[in-house]
């Protein structure tokens, strides 16, 4: 599996096991045998040991023992926890400063604060007592984690100062000091347990644990940095910070008042190097206009305050040894090179591998075995090699040469004109492609077959039970053979076969997406299903007919024609037809609910309160609207939810594209 496949697999296991835990502990309705659960947990644990960089803070491997809080209550924030706009460069800061001065004039100050790398938390105090601690969540509502947060020593349960507002909210960041993190990881390593990826994940995972005794055992810390009240008790943010200290809250002593953007830049430059002397991680500097009256005058955008911005430090990089390059084959046949490195610590993570993307990247870097390479881990989850230390290259080192044949089946690799990836064309006999295609077919976004998982497909393939997607629909004939396999009892087999049978009712566009045709994602599959009406018409459609369908370009059309030009693919579709799968679009699914959005284009970004993004997409399309994949001059509206990336927001602003909220869309449909 490629690194991306491994991460997808780990994410899927975390999601599945957490759902089983919820069903067991909260609903008292077990949906998996204990043995099977433990085996899946063991598999996830092994993957987390091998790939700690992908470990999830909510992993069930971290949720063990004791007094169980069976679920967390979702609480609406009294004051929304908005995100801040981010930047990595000086010019953006100067542009921000220019916008501020245009609105409020020249007389103002900034407060510069360290940007702590942890878990955001909101603490509510009533009559001097801590009554609620809530995670940021989606910015509008979060999880009530009061019991766990009360175990953090420097968060006061009751304030000694009686002269505090009767009701106020204070915000901060829960984190772990690096020394404590390293000590705990060493303990876990000695016990043979999974090590945590970084202090931030550790803090976030601990706060969301079900065992408050274990939370208390772990040395978490918290800095507070913002106050919200119903009345204006202070004139400036700086004044409120000093007062919070006097009330007994842990406020960082490293903040500073700045009279100009130049002073801000000096502060940033100072902490770009000084940060490594801190006992905890920071990933940037937060800059806020000091006066609350001026903050109010500046106001907010749809996503963030206009009076604050976050400057993020550039990615860390380290030097280590490139031991070798291996090659992984994905379900589409793309062969991805992976750099195997001498293990090194980077951004709180032990890095053993890095992506090399494709043959062009290997050529660009001019890699040799044993090279000393610089590795960076920025916004990407997977680290990457950015350069080679040529001074340390050893004499006689072997140049890394991209293979000409598939590492799995030895077929000659092909590379299409205009593409950077090399592909193995042997999609019906190359093992990782076969397994990957079947895993894709059963996935949640495709056929969503209950009772089947990626590891089960691996087992079935190894045992010769499935060699093609169509073989899934003959498994009922092999029930006795299935019973001989480890971990397969009558109940699990029954559930799996039931899930396979139910999948026959999935609509045409889901089946089409599940076939795994290159470049045919969910949206394209839906366009093709409704544009051609059935698989027979699609299979014989010409290039001109395909490109006449909305959003189908030449590359997608050529891929479809190539797919249906393979006799084995047609044979498999024939078998799936005979087993009762849906290969025709149902008319009432094709019909529009209305034409109120006809001619309008949308991009959906962020998290929404009442609808999932998929539901909003369906709502727009069923009323005649069109979903675009990215922001361009062709876009009419950016439907903006919480946690939307700042780059999209910036691009939309530059193009003067209107931002609309969930409620605005519903108004358009009235």
UniProtKB/TrEMBL annotation:
InterPro entries to which the protein is assigned, alphabetical: BRCT_dom, BRCT_dom_sf, DisA/LigA_HHH, DNA_ligase, DNA_ligase_CS, DNAligase_adenylation, DNAligase_N, Hlx-hairpin-Hlx_DNA-bd_motif
Domain BRCT: start-end pairs: 592-670
Cofactor: Mg(2+); Mn(2+)
GO cellular component: cytosol
Molecular function (Gene Ontology), one example: DNA binding
Binding site for Zn(2+): 406, 409, 424, 430
CDD domains: LIGANc (cd00114)
Broad EC category: ligase
Pfam families found in the cross-reference section: BRCT, DNA_ligase_aden, DNA_ligase_ZBD, HHH_2, OB_DNA_ligase
EC number of the protein: 6.5.1.2
Family, per entry: Belongs to the NAD-dependent DNA ligase family. LigA subfamily.
PANTHER family for this protein: CHROMOSOME TRANSMISSION FIDELITY FACTOR 18, DNA LIGASE
Protein name: DNA ligase
Organism (species): Pedobacter ginsengisoli
Phylogenetic placement of the source organism: Bacteria, Pseudomonadati, Bacteroidota, Sphingobacteriia, Sphingobacteriales
